[in-house]
Design brief:
Largest sheet: none
Structural class: mainly alpha
Number of domains: 1
Number of strands: 0
Radius of gyration: 16 Å
CATH superfamily: Tetracycline Repressor, domain 2
Order of helices and strands: HHHHHH
Strand content: under 5%
Length: about 120
């Protein structure tokens, strides 16, 4: 059972950063060198890039299904899942760009904060 499926109560707001991000961060932290080589190979090959996009779409669909199973209605479940996958992907990219000093969980958090800042309404001038 995934971290998303484990919850039983209906979320008050769609979770922008799924709980599974932290678990994935722990696993990927140990494989930074491989993740960097993998990202470079995907960037250099159109077929691999297309395959990666399909995998991310499947992850978003599975996440949306888990959120619906927890009681989150549409379109919020799909939106939260899509945003969560996008934040995770952006966090991984940020982490790899940071080099050896970066931490994946921190990079995901920073990416989430950046998105939140962009979506915060500006005060009327």
């Amino acid at each position: 059972m995934s971290a998303l499926e484990a919850g039983t109560s209906k979320p008050k707001k769609p979770p922008i950063q799924p709980k599974c991000s932290a678990a994935a961060a722990v696993l990927l932290e140990e494989r930074r060198e491989f993740a960097g080589r993998r990202a470079a190979a995907i960037a250099a090959n159109a077929g691999l890039h297309e395959r990666e996009l399909l995998k991310l779409a499947a992850l978003a669909a599975a996440s949306a299904g888990a959120l619906r199973n927890r009681g989150l209605d549409e379109p919020a479940a799909t939106l939260a899942a899509e945003v969560g996958v996008t934040v995770f992907k952006g966090g991984v990219e940020r982490w790899l760009a940071a080099g050896a000093s970066g931490r994946l969980a921190q990079s995901i958090h920073e990416t989430s904060d950046e998105l939140r800042t962009m979506l915060t309404p500006l005060p009327d001038a």
